[in-house]
Amino acid sequence: MNLEDINAVSNLLSKPQNIVIVPHKNPDGDAIGSTLALWHYLKTKGQKVHIVVPNDYPKFLKWMPGHEQILNFEKENSQAKALIEEATVIFTLDFNHLGRIGQMEAILNDSQATFIMIDHHQAPSDYAHYMYSDVSMSSTCEMIYNFIEFLGDDEKINPEMAICLYTGIMTDTGSFKYTSTTSRTHRVVAALIDKGAENTKAHNLVYDTNTPNRLHLLGCALKNMVILEEYNTAYITLSQDELETYGYQKGDTEGFVNYGLTLHGIFFAVIFIENKEEGIVKISFRSEGEFSVNEFARKHFNGGGHTNAAGGRSDVSLQETIEYFVSILKEYKAQLNP
Question: Where is the DDH domain (predicted)?
């Protein structure tokens, strides 16, 4: 974020505003952590501020300070619309294209508010008046820490903000193991712990709240894993019937795709999840090294994300999606055999 934009945003926030903070559809730990931390921060500045999420999010994130104040656009539609229509400033966090917010896209497109984007994904669109976009960042939560620091307010970071930011960084870095984790990330995390983030509590509440159904679903997913040694690739499938058999709840498949990368010699891992209600197959891609799943997802599966972590979707059946995926791997054989 350049100095001119920092000064402009600082001036904007020095006056009373009606602010709405919006994360992407199906918000994850980084999205919820960053929105809640920013909400707490803006409240310390005396701003009128609300969070509107496009849809529900996993139960294992519904403990962070302030989570009960979050409005679900699907369930609290009238109230959410009214807040967005009244907004003078809208922060969009952890996404960079309005297509990522589902049915909220139309109302945000019509808004006359000043938009501020804070995000670390590739290929941002240009809807925002002020943009803090940096693909080298580990997480949007690390960027929110920087944003507060840019405005000279890092002393305002309290334990509530700190644990929200810590949780988002923790989840988006795979507990600090991804290559996006830098020495700066660790310095930020250390500062957050010093400011009151209870790191063990965050880890336990996110990762140690499994249900028997989720573990049985994980067993099903691992049983379905297919290994394509020729391409150093592993993929998992989960059908709608399998999800229903194990009482699937939102967030239950979080992290399943990463198991493929724990196999020796596997550099590309994918999970295909059938969603008959939406008529799509939801896809998550992970990779190690230089193979860009962002480019792969954008080219073949209407998706995108980061170099080593991306998402996508398919509008054909689960079986047809898998067949198409396997058929195009030959184009990438050289890249997948480093």
Answer: 18-169
Contact present, 141 and 33 (Cβ < 8 Å): yes
Q: Tokens 């994918």 sit at which residue?
A: 270
Q: How far apart are CA 251 and CA 329, in angstroms?
A: 28
- 255-272 in b/e form (b: 16+ CB < 10 A) is ebbebbbeeeebbbbbbb
pLDDT tens string 25-67 = 999 999 999 999 999 999 999 999 999 999 999 999 999 999 9
CATH entry, 3-207, from 3.40.190.10, 3.30.420.40, 3.90.1640.10, 3.10.350.10: 3.90.1640.10
Mean pLDDT in consecutive groups of 10 residues from the start of the chain, 338 residues: 93 97 97 98 97 96 97 96 97 96 95 97 93 96 98 97 98 92 97 98 96 97 98 98 96 95 97 95 95 95 91 96 97 91
CA dihedral defined by 166, 167, 168, 174, rounded to 10 degrees? 100
Tell me the CA end-to-end span of the chain in Å, nearest whole number. 36
Pairing mode of beta strands 71-72, 114-119: unpaired
Residue ranges of the domains in the chain? 3-207, 212-332
List C-alpha distances in Å: 146 to 133, 143, 225: 12, 5, 40
For residues 89 and 130, the answer to whether their CB atoms sit within 8 Å is no
Q: What is the dihedral of CA 27, 283, 266, 182, to 10 degrees?
A: -30
For the residues of 112-170, what is the DSSP string, one character each? -SEEEEEE--SS--S--SEEEE-TTSS-HHHHHHHHHHHTT-GGG--HHHHHHHHHHHH
Residue with tokens 């891609």: 285
Residue 233 pairs in a beta bridge with 228, 268
